[in-house]
């Protein structure tokens, strides 16, 4: 049987995008408005701390053992070089791990709630959901010169009652996202009132 020239070719079914890590926290019919990731400045501060720690160790080693490297035999020098290289590889591995953990922290704003994903270790994650019905106040905090220059801050979402508050550090453009949470909450409240 010949394919009909007038029929369009069969299209494959659409490929679903990978689910968000918090997809189990999403309710049916709930849609994601935005995903807020941390500002890269937090990583820069971590990298600067690592560089400062390595520089301090080299400085202390140079002060405590001023003639150490000059008096090494060839074999001992090779061992020191290999150990130094392995320590450098370990440092790079740790920085890659820290970077991965840092970028997995996010705040997901939906049309009904805020979902906070905190990755505190390679195998430790905390996912919390806060409904707009429980939100009392949303504030943005920028303290100091660097947060003001690079436009990041802490996004505070305060709750009523005994629920735990959210504090999302290194939020890029925290004022904008505080307004987004407030606007989404107002839309949620208006929709709830109109449905009742």
Describe the model.
There is one protein chain. This protein has helices at 41-64, 74-103, 145-150, 174-195, and strands at residues 32-37, 106-110, 113-121, 124-131, 135-141, 152-159, 166-172. It is an alpha+beta fold and 196 residues long. The protein has two domains: 31-39 and 106-195, PH-domain like (Roll), CATH 2.30.29.30; 45-100. A four-stranded antiparallel β-sheet has the order 1-2-3-4. Strands 5-6-7 form a three-stranded antiparallel β-sheet. Strand 2 and strand 3 form a beta hairpin. The model is unreliable at 14-18 (pLDDT under 50).
CATH topology description of the largest domain: PH-domain like
CATH architecture descriptor of the largest domain: Roll
What is the overall number of helices? 4
Rg calculated over all Cα atoms: 26 Å
Give keywords.
alpha+beta, four-stranded antiparallel beta sheet, 196 residues, 4 helices, PH-domain like, three-stranded antiparallel beta sheet
Give the secondary structure arrangement, pairings included.
Blueprint: E1 32-37, H1 41-64, H2 74-103, E2 106-110, E3 113-121, E4 124-131, E5 135-141, H3 145-150, E6 152-159, E7 166-172, H4 174-195
Antiparallel strand pairs: 1-2, 2-3, 3-4, 5-6, 6-7
Helix pairs in contact: 1-2
Task: Write a brief structural summary.
The protein has 196 residues and is of the alpha+beta class. It has helices at 41-64, 74-103, 145-150, 174-195, and strands spanning 32-37, 106-110, 113-121, 124-131, 135-141, 152-159, 166-172. The strands form two sheets. A four-stranded antiparallel sheet has the order 1-2-3-4. A three-stranded antiparallel sheet has the order 5-6-7.
């Amino acid at each position: 049987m010949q394919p009909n020239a007038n029929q369009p070719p069969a299209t494959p079914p659409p490929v679903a995008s990978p689910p968000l890590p918090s997809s189990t926290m999403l309710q049916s019919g709930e849609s994601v408005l935005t995903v807020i990731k941390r500002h890269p400045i937090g990583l820069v501060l971590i990298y600067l701390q690592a560089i400062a720690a390595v520089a301090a160790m080299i400085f202390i080693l140079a002060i405590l053992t001023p003639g150490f490297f000059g008096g090494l035999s060839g074999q001992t020098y090779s061992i020191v070089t290999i150990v130094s290289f392995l320590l450098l590889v370990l440092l790079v591995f740790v920085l890659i791990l820290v970077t991965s953990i840092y970028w997995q922290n996010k705040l997901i704003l939906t049309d009904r709630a805020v979902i906070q994903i905190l990755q505190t270790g390679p195998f430790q994650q905390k996912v919390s959901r806060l409904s707009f019905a429980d939100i009392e106040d949303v504030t943005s905090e920028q303290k100091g010169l660097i947060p003001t220059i690079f436009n990041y801050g802490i996004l505070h979402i305060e709750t009523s009652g005994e629920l735990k508050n959210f504090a999302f550090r290194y939020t890029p453009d925290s004022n904008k996202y505080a307004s987004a949470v407030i606007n989404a909450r107002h839309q949620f409240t208006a929709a709830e009132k109109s449905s009742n």
